[in-house]
Design a protein that fits this description.
By secondary structure, the chain is of the alpha/beta class. It is built from 13 helices and 13 strands. The strands form three sheets. Strands 3-2-1-4-7-13 form a six-stranded mixed β-sheet. The two termini are 17 Å apart. 51% of the residues are buried.
């Protein structure tokens, strides 16, 4: 009953892995590991977010590189636990999203699961979003079903806010109902701006944002994006919230200071999350944040200001490290696959019904 979950998200920073024990239908983390993307691979993955020359070959080469890093993460997890590959039932491997277009009937997670199975000696379950899309769903977010299994508290309404490259929420209602969707940009715009102006892949602890001042008019223009007003189910990614989108918004503000833009982008993430929570959180008792954004003190403070009547904390308060949650979720989805149990929630994704998610690559 041991499974490994591997997740590399829209932040494009690296691979989070978790080794999980699902004995007795419980979720017990036995270890976690992280493998950073080399800068060259990160650049290649970023370039594949938009159309370009020789895409098929570039994607295949990058997929092999991602699979090898995934295999390295698996090796680290096995060494940490002192076990061999035969002890693990399966790997749930998310892959790297390079296009997400459910309105066109597809989502693309770059990966080579056959190579990962070959390198790891473990069955691999991959392509975990496509079946939901085939059933008319968004294919995202998939984590609310896992959030319900792990964080649900009868009689309480909890919101789990995942802040990776893109932000999303899971509303776990007191009556047992679950809703959720992508709220908009998480760290993606902030990270891109930090890399461009500071040469750093992210704004550590939000310190640079804290040195700047909010630009209220710019924030209003950013929040004027039509996506924010769309009803659920909905999902988004770098297909919409990318550097050119931001440049278009900044065209009317030629003299702004970079630090002030960073402060405003941080507030954008907090405001878009808060608006979604206030609209759909059914008077939440608490909001628990996971993903890399949970480590950004400036962002967490901004979210708390936006939600003055709701307790805001990281999932650490529930005993789960915020960086582990998504990797745990994809281990859980692999476990659900092997049990032939559904992994999606139609109320979240808009799919026609419950579906078993993923494709198996035996080792």
């Amino acid at each position: 009953m041991l499974y490994i979950g591997l997740m590399s998200g829209t932040s494009l920073d690296g691979v989070d892995g978790a080794l999980v024990d699902f004995s007795h239908d419980s979720v017990r983390s036995l270890g976690d590991a992280y493998v950073a993307f080399p800068a060259s691979l990160r650049d290649d993955l970023m370039a594949l977010q938009t159309p370009g020359h020789n895409e098929i070959e570039r994607e295949a080469v990058a997929a092999n590189a991602v699979a090898r890093l995934y295999a390295g993460c698996v090796e680290a997890l096995l060494a940490q636990a002192g076990i061999g590959p035969d002890a693990v039932a399966a790997i749930g491997a998310h892959g790297q999203t390079i296009r997400h277009r459910p309105e066109l009937g597809f989502t693309r997670q770059l990966n080579n699961p056959a190579l990962l199975a070959e390198l790891s000696g473990i069955d691999v379950i991959a392509d975990l979003r496509s079946r939901d899309v085939a059933a008319g769903g968004q294919g995202a977010p998939l984590v609310p079903a896992f959030h319900q299994a792990l964080f649900n508290a009868p009689g309480q309404t909890r919101v789990v806010a995942n802040i990776g490259g893109i932000g999303n929420i899971s509303v776990l209602r007191a009556d047992g109902g679950v809703t959720g969707y992508d709220t908009g940009p998480g760290n993606a715009l902030m990270d891109g701006w930090s890399l461009r102006h500071q040469g750093l892949p992210y704004d550590a602890d939000g310190a640079w944002a804290a040195s700047g001042k909010l630009i209220p008019a710019l924030l209003a223009d950013l929040l004027n994006e039509a996506y924010f007003a769309l009803p659920a189910p909905k999902s988004t990614g770098r297909d919409l919230f990318h550097a050119d989108w931001l440049a278009g918004k900044l065209a009317a503000y030629p003299d702004v200071l970079p630090a002030d833009v960073q402060a405003t982008l941080t507030e954008l993430t907090a405001a878009s999350l808060a608006q979604a929570i206030l609209r759909d959180g059914a008077q939440a008792d608490a909001v628990y944040v996971c993903g890399g954004g949970a480590h950004n003190a400036t962002l967490m403070a901004a979210l708390a200001r936006q939600l003055p009547d709701v307790a805001v904390a990281s999932t650490e308060a529930l005993g789960v490290a915020p960086n582990q949650v998504e990797a745990l979720a994809f281990a859980w989805l692999a476990w659900r696959f092997t049990q032939r149990k559904p992994g999606n929630l139609p109320a979240v994704t808009g799919a026609k019904g419950l579906r078993v998610l993923g494709a198996l690559y035996p080792h």
